[in-house]
Amino acid sequence: MAHDPVIRFERVGKRYGDGDAVVEGVTLSIERSHFVVVLGPSGCGKTTLLKMVNRLVEPTSGSIFINGVDSKAIKVTQLRRSMGYVIQQIGLFPHMTVAKNVSTVPELLRWEPARTSARVRELLELVRLPYDEFGLRHPAALSGGQQQRIGLARALAADPDILLMDEPFGALDAIERVRLQAELSDLHQRLHKTVVFVTHDVEEALHLADRIVVMRAGRIEQYGRPIDILERPANAFVAELVSAQDAVRRLGVIKIGDVLPLDGASSTAHARTAAPIKAPSDAAPLTAQTDLRTALSLMLAAGVRELPVLSDDGAALGAFTLEQLLQAARTPVSQVGVSDF
Ligand SMILES: Nc1ncnc2c1ncn2[C@@H]1O[C@H](COP(=O)(O)OP(=O)(O)OP(=O)(O)O)[C@@H](O)[C@H]1O
Ligand SMILES: [Mg+2]
C-alpha cells in the first residue's frame, strides 16, 4: 500500500463564529521529513492553518489526517504530544530554570528522572546551550535568541515526529535570526522531523523550505519547491510576492550538487579533476550543499573565478567555476536537474 503523508489536509475550512471563512478549501499533503514553509501576507490564515494541525483551532469543514488517521479521532492530548509547537512569544515559564522548562513534557509523561535529565542535557547540547552553563539559569537571564532555542529544545523533548513552528524567529534581530535559521536547517537534516514552519518572510522561506505553501486570503495559491515557486510562479500574486524574476534570489535556491555531477564516473562533463585548484587559504570551501548565491559571494570575496568543491570528509571533488555558475543561472531548472528528494 502507498504510504500516507504525515499530514494531509482535505478541503479544510475555518470560520470563526459567524464571520467569513479565513481558511477555505485547503487540500495539501505533507510528506515525511519535509520542511514545509507556509508563506503569505499578514492575516491570510497561516496561524489558523497551523493551529488546526494540533487542534488549538478546530476546522469548521473538511478533515486533517495525521499518518492517515483523521485527527478528530485522536485524543487531543495524544495528538499534541506527537507534535512539538514553537511560537514567537515562546512562552517559557519565567519562574522555572531552563532545565525545568525543557523537562516539562517528559515529566508530564512520567519519565524516569534519570532518563529525563539525560534527555535535558542532550537537548541543551543540541541547541548549543550546554547544561553546565545554562541549565540552572532562568529565562530572564537569556537573550531572545537563547530563549527561542530553549523553546525549540522544549518542543523536541519527547521526540515528536512533527514540529509546528509559527514565526519562531520573528522577534529576533537579523543576525540572530540568520544564525538560528542555519541551526534549524542543520537540525532538520540530522533529525529528519517533519516541519511545518509559518513565516511572512520570503528570504526565510526560500532559505529553509523543501516545499513552500503560498497562501492568500485563506487559500493556497501554490505549493512547490522553492525553485518551482521562483521559476514557475502560478500567478501574478506569487510572482510578485517572491520577486520571481530576481536572478540573485534564484541562485540562492540552487545548490552546487544540483548542477555538478560530483560523484566519480559522471564527473567528466563539469567537475574538472585534473589540476587541483588552490583555494585562497581563507576562503571557505564549497560543498554539494553550498547554494550558488553563496558560491558567487565567496568567489567575489576571494577575487577568483573558480573554487574547489570538497566532499563532507574534505576530499577534493573538483572545481566549480564562475562560467558554470552563470550557465546554471540561465538554465531552466528542468534542465539543471534539481534533485527531487
Ligand atoms: N480567534 C479568532 N477569532 C476571530 N477571528 C480570528 C481569530 N483568529 C484569527 N482571526 C482572523 O482570521 C484571519 C486569519 O488570521 P491568522 O492569525 O490565521 O493570520 P496569519 O496569516 O497568521 O497572520 P499574521 O501573519 O499577521 O500572523 C484574520 O483575519 C484574523 O483576524
Ligand atoms: Mg500568524
Describe the 3D structure:
By secondary structure, the protein is of the alpha/beta class. It folds into 2 domains: 7-246, P-loop containing nucleotide triphosphate hydrolases (Rossmann fold), CATH 3.40.50.300; 252-336, CBS domain Like, CATH 3.90.1280.20. Helix content is 38%, strand content 21%. It contains 15 helices and 12 strands. The strands form 3 sheets. It has a 6-stranded mixed beta sheet, with helices on both faces. Strands 2-1-4-5 form a 4-stranded antiparallel beta sheet, covered by helices on one side. Strands 11-12 form a two-stranded antiparallel ribbon. A hairpin with a 2-residue loop joins strand 4 and strand 5 (69-70). It starts with 6 loop residues before the first strand and ends in a 5-residue tail after the last helix. Bound molecules: adenosine-5'-triphosphate and magnesium ion (MG). Residues 46-47 line the site of magnesium ion.
Helix content: 25-40%
From the helix content, strand content and strand pairing, which structural class follows? alpha/beta
Strand order of the largest sheet: 6-7-8-3-9-10
Q: What is the count of β-strands?
A: 12
Question: Which ligands appear in the coordinates?
Answer: adenosine-5'-triphosphate, magnesium ion
The string of secondary-structure elements, in order, is: EEEHEEHEHHHHEHEHEEHHHHHEEHH
Low-confidence stretches: 264-274
The largest pleated sheet is described as: 6 strands, mixed
What CATH calls the topology of the largest domain is Rossmann fold
CATH architecture of the largest domain: 3-Layer(aba) Sandwich
Rg over CA atoms, rounded to whole Å, is 22 Å
Mean pLDDT: 88
CATH evolutionary superfamily of the largest domain: P-loop containing nucleotide triphosphate hydrolases
- Total helical elements: 15
Query: Quick one: overall form?
Result: globular
CATH class of the largest domain: Alpha Beta
**Terminal residue distance:** 20 Å
Strand content: 15-25%
Number of domains: 2
